Amino acid sequence: MQTETIPHAGWEHNLRLANDQIELVVTLDVGPRVISFRTKNGANVFKTFDEQLGGKGETEWMIRGGHRFWIAPEDLARTYHIDNHPPRHWVDKATGEFIFEAEQEAGGRILKTLGVTISPDSARVKVRHTAKNTDSRSLEFSAWALSVMKAGGTAVIPQPPLGEHPRDLLPNRTMVLWPYTDLTDARFRIGRDFIVLQQAADRPPTKLGLSHKEKQIAYIVDGSIFIKSFDFIEGETYPDGGCNFETFTNGEMLEVESLSPLRTVPPGGEITHIEEWTLLPLSGSVSTESDEVLKRTLAPYLAQAAL
After folding, report:
1. What CA–CA distance (Å, rounded) separates 76 from 69?
2. According to the model, what pLDDT value does residue 304 have?
3. Cα dist. 50→8, 10, 63, 138 in Å?
4. Which of 32, 36, 92, 112 allows an S-S link to 87, with CB 3.0 to 4.6 Å?
5. Residue 151: how many CA atoms within 13 Å on its side-chain side?
6. pTM, whole model, 2 decimals?
């Protein structure tokens, strides 16, 4: 595996993590934030906002793009933490995890830790989001992981297997809609096995949330397929009416977001939420047997995106 500090996207200090299949770049001058994720010969699948790249020290929150770590439920004070300063960072030599952390004070003191572990020989990455209550009082919150995806792609979200009546009498999925969600929007295709959402230029915002027990989604763009995997814990309460997954899009980008359970966290307590990422080219070879098996399992995602 390759690790080096490089200039990137206007910032002088960024950590590049790479193996023979994938490359991540994590900002060190602001954040914590993963600003780039690409296959060895591919383009960055994350959206970046060029006018905000290289900036730091601003007094307002900046979207910038890439993958960020938020606190839910959404609140102007707590959620929009101004992450425009250098995070602390180090590597855990025992586990190989690269750790980036910053503390926020608005809406209660919370220490946010982003841990990144890249596989030495496959197209997989583990991303840990730990939110620790460093306040003197209990706080209710959820860890919220948001990936801002490049324009022009398609999100493909698997649904649970279709049941039968009268055998299956209880509901097995929850869909949450926002005030600006219009299900007649042509960007949505809600089918039997998948929900598909296409990013399109010059379109207004729309958002969809799910109690997503399939624990995986895909985003397909620019010759790459990005797989985000995350947990759903039965019996837990999730934010926003039960959402462990949300997707938002407008004319510039599409976000794929996963959330931890919503809990009341005492002083010194913490919530950890883990995502696993896989990024593969849509054509060409992969170097490990496990990635080849995974690529074959992605055929239904690709078929949906092509419809």
Report:
1. 15
2. 74
3. 12, 9, 11, 39
4. 32
5. 10
6. 0.94
The sign of the torsion formed by the CA atoms of 84, 97, 146, 252 equals: positive
The DSSP letter of residue 51 is G
* Residue 166: partners with Cβ closer than 8 Å, 6 or more residues away: none
Task: Report the distance separating Cα 159 and Cα 155, nearest Å.
Answer: 13
* pLDDT score recorded for residue 292: 65
Dihedral in degrees, nearest 10, Cα atoms 296, 298, 299, 302? -150
Assigned CATH class of 2-306: mainly beta
* pLDDT, position 225: 93
Give the pLDDT of residue 301. 75
Which residues of the chain fall below pLDDT 50? none
Given this model, what pLDDT does residue 294 score?
A: 61
For residue 34, give the 3-state DSSP assignment.
strand
Torsion of CA 295, 120, 33, 212, to 10 degrees: 40
C-alpha pair distances (Å), 193 with each of 156, 189, 301: 10, 11, 10
pLDDT value at position 284? 65
